[in-house]
Amino acid sequence: MTMLQLLIMIAALAAGVMITRFVPFVLFPENRKVPKIVEYLGSVLPPAVIALLVVYCLRNVDFLHASFGLPEIAAILAICGLHAWKRNSLLSIAGGTILYMGLLHLIG
């Protein structure tokens, strides 16, 4: 890749990031009411995305062989428990990941 191509790619990426950051402020200024559909999507999309990520992460788990999905189930329960206890996403994700990796190492 030439230097010109690299600079064009960086400029295009920067423009794309800036557009996605600035467009919401242009479409929905403070003095204008946000449409109901946007408010609805803002309330339902985050849980939907999390549910899709959980399904995606569990898609290849074989509950009929070897560890029977125990590391995955234990990590999900740990994440839910830590989040219910402390309400700290970083702690929940880190704790679940550490538990999952430890169980994978022990169980195989």
Automatic annotation (TrEMBL):
Asked whether the keyword Membrane is assigned, the reply is yes
Q: Which UniProt keywords apply?
A: Membrane, Transmembrane, Transmembrane helix
Q: Where are the transmembrane segments?
A: 6-28, 40-58, 64-82, 89-107
Q: Which domain of life is it from?
A: Bacteria
Q: Which Pfam family name is an example for this entry?
A: AzlD
> What is this protein's name?
AzlD domain-containing protein
